[in-house]
Write a structure and sequence with these properties.
Blueprint: H1 2-132
């Protein structure tokens, strides 16, 4: 009976040791798989971090370019505004000069008409004088 029980316990022990070995092998396999998965995930994380840094650098570069472009456009707008003010001032001055010139021309035309009338009157008087003094050379 003892021998039979011992034999039975030995077989059960061997069976349990086999199951333990199988379980340990499966555990070792799972540990290996998990380690591989961890390494794979670490690589993915490293790649994503690198990609994030590249994207961040690109974003900062684009942002800096946009800032420079905005500054350039702002300077250009300021320059154009200043040119516009100068043109408006020049136009105002030219209009004022035009008004002065028109007034001068109007006065000179009036004077010319007066001089033309005076000349015509003087010519008429001279002709009349010449008729009256026609006998005198």
């Amino acid at each position: 009976l003892i021998s039979s029980a011992t034999s039975s316990l030995r077989m059960e022990k061997q069976l349990l040791e086999k199951k333990l070995q199988d379980a340990q092998m499966k555990l070792a396999e799972k540990d290996g798989d998990k380690e591989k998965e961890i390494q794979s995930l670490q690589r993915v994380i490293a790649e994503l971090e690198l990609q994030l840094r590249v994207e961040k650098d690109n974003k900062e570069s684009v942002l800096e370019n946009m800032r420079r472009e905005m500054k350039h456009k702002s300077d250009e707008v300021e320059k154009l505004s200043q040119e516009r003010r100068q043109l408006i001032d020049s136009l105002s001055q030219a209009q004022e000069e035009g008004s002065v010139l028109r007034e001068t021309v109007r006065r000179e035309c009036g004077e010319r008409l007066e001089l033309t009338a005076a000349l015509a009157e003087a010519r008429d008087r001279l002709m009349e004088f010449n008729k009256l003094s026609g006998t005198f050379p």
